[in-house]
Write a structure and sequence with these properties.
23% strand, eight-stranded parallel beta barrel, 2,3-Dihydroxybiphenyl 1,2-Dioxygenase, domain 1, alpha/beta
Length: 627
Amino acid sequence: MKTGIATVSISGDFRTKLAAIAAAGYTGIEIFEQDFIAYDGSPRDVGQMVRDHGLEILLFQPFRDFEGLPEPLRAKAFDRAERKFDLMQALGTDLVLVCSTCHKSALGGIDRAAADFRELGERAAKRGLRVGYEALAWGKYVNDHRDAWEIVRRADHPNVGVVLDSFHTLSRKIDPDTIRRIPGDKIFFIQLADAPQIDMDLLYWSRHFRNMPGEGDLPVTDFMRAVMATGYDGPISLEIFNDYFRGSSTRGVARDGYRSIIALMDDVRRAEPTLEVDLPPVPARVKPEGVAFVEFATRGEEATTLEGTLHALGFEQSNKHVNKAVTLWQQGEIRIVLNAETTGHADHSWNARGTAVCDIGLAVTSARDALTRAQALGIEPFSQPTGPGELDIPAMRGLSGSVLHLLDDSSGLAHVWETEFGVTSTPNGAGLTRIDHLAQTMSYEDMLSWTLFYGSVFAMKKSPMHDVIDPDGLVRSQVLETKDGALRITLNGADTHRTLAGRFLSESFGAPVQHIALATDDIFGTLDALAQRGFAPLPMPQNYYDDLGARFDFPAGLMDRMQARNVLYDRDDHGEFFQVYSRAFAGGLFFEIVQRSAGYKGFGAPNAPFRIAAQKRLSHTPGVPES
């Protein structure tokens, strides 16, 4: 399977783009005319440079405003085409993309357009070249791939075919199954792009908000299932216009794009087992079964403070590691690991950030399959030397240089606690049972990448993105979770350091986890027990409870209990949600305690602005410690 990406999709100069595309594993590129024009080398030099990187020029694009022109504009269009053919031959590529006209003087008519393409095909054939016709979603007369195909069909020339672009089809809500009527050998090229579902002008939407397959809301898998059902066996390429991608890491965006193609085509193969998809075997997405542990790098006074916070939350130290300066704190199914090692990954994390989450352990159905799939998607594995009596636990790199370790029951990896810590029982604690969700904070431009990361490796679905209002800006939030809620991760993207999330990123030098939500079945019983241990919740103002009483009807006495314990509340059509927050420590880390009824699927989003305001107010109050 040949894979490609349009050079316009990533940032940097032409050489930088080629290096990133080659490193990511693509077969070739769509060379965007603007990138060529901006380069100071000859066409032959550019073509050789591409080949020197081990890449092919799969497509030259775009050639605009060709068909349906009256004379003398028609003759001029053919002259322009001949010059582009000269350029293509010098570059060493045989396929040009002609997009449907938007020219103000163009005339409609399928037969007129077909005649133009028949003549263009004749001229291309004399040079050994091919022409691919693409219907732009905003084309003047042709904005539907069905019309583009009809023009190509009537042109009836072997050197003229269609180019299909998922965005142009799906943005107009055209049924992708109509592609199945096109013979596969008349589809010359496939371009892919996803996008968030936004109601706006199609051209503006396309030019600024496209993203990688799997990062948006369009049914790109259905599109590719239809394409592959035609027998198409040509290149599969990405054409992405995105403002953030243009300013992001060139290698990072190129890598994400390649990952998105592999994940998409694996989905196509699994959805249509009878189709031939030229892709090496890849394990299916692995189901997460929960958070096995959260590990902090910490030491000295900061470790003492964190231990005090854990004790106040009902945790007890279970045991120490057999070889390392590592302790395990437990309660219910929750395991918190404190790592004070002065070598290895935790030491690097400590030196960079101080006390911060450096490692997350995920319980999965198969650790081996999860790591194999991750590596097939270009995700970097992680390893460090193991000592006597230690298990070699598969791991991969996660957000901000953190690590994701993978544990399962079938291989015995889940017994690491007995093996490396000698743990045989779990402290009773104060009623906290499991980790409800983890909140990971990042810059907004990184959110799509990490949505793709989790969604392509693990069997998780993403929610629609929503805005969280901070008094000093906006934070965008998106949830990834398993169908049964065993694993929930909220990704929070900060645009400015003035928001609480942005300040955490700045002060922690990009720590990957800002807060950990702990579940209980009885939040008031838990809080009563924690009060005896000295737990100090985040204080909420009277105004919050006055408003809450106006919005909801409560049983007698419940509002008083919530206010006494600083409990926040939300309710939807399916259930209700109670939540309370710890005070911040270590540069903005905090814990959350939640009780959710089975039907409630949210995260208390209506309460976020009030929680953020309370946290900011507390951090700015003179003489009031944060923890």
